[in-house]
Task: structure prediction
Amino acid sequence: MKKIIKTALFLGLAAFGLISCQHDNDNDNNPQMTVYQLISADNDLRTLKSAVDKAGLSATLNQTGPLTLFAPGNTAFNAFLQANGYASLNDVPPAALKTLLMNHVLGSELKASQVSTGYVSTLAIGAASASRPISMFINTSSGVKINGGSSVVAADIDASNGVIHKVNAVIGLPTIVTHATANPQFSSLVVALTRNDMPNFVGILSGTANSPFTVFAPTNQAFSSLLTEVNLPNLAAIPQSLLENTLKYHVVTGANVASNNLTNNMIVPTFQGSTFKITTTGGAKITDKNNRVSNIVATDVQCNNGIIHVINKVLLP
Result:
């Protein structure tokens, strides 16, 4: 089973659209300095440097590497503190701050020319799993956007142990909803989840009650195929009860089930109340209650409150 980080499902390989972004003038291309030394010398990254120190991560950013740091500027950090009700950086619990900052760091050097649309793993370990790193979604379709909300504004600031890319917003710990909305291949799923006659799926899948969640997420093409199968013109035409039960059928509560936890003939209880079966012979597949088979085409998008696997057919309870 291919990891989602390598799948061609998500828009294919795209150029890292940063040609128009300007490098930082103060510390551009100083490979004798580490990532930590560069942020320490940059006035625009004073708050980030203070946060790194408070979280005890200076040694991490000074280590041999290679590392990639997506670095929020002072304005971005101040906006984050205000939006989350913190009067100052001192009010952020150190453990939470450490996880947040590690969500901006990759354990590899990722230059502008190497980045494509898709998922990478950060160095952050979130609440859903004690061992699996949180995933980051990079979209290069229009500039470079991270998790749907933070854009790269200056790229390829070289360090002796990696590279820094400046971003215009702090990258919060992603929930199931964050990754569903960030990836354009899930736009039909998002439309279905947010239909006005549905339960508050956004609130449920953004929160921690009944978490961690494991979500088997159908692609846009999967929803198009479903509409053809049930002979309906659009998602709005799906009866309320059918859509609600169908969406709940794709969610497992109370478990962060990674791909290495999937076993042959595994019976999976769902949020909807019924079960489906997973088989792994010849590739991972799901057989729903109507004996319809969906392929698991990409796996292990790790969120702070759960994990997402991608399927190519909508499951029907």
Notes: The longest helix spans residues 220-230. The two ends are 25 Å apart (CA to CA). The mean pLDDT is 92.
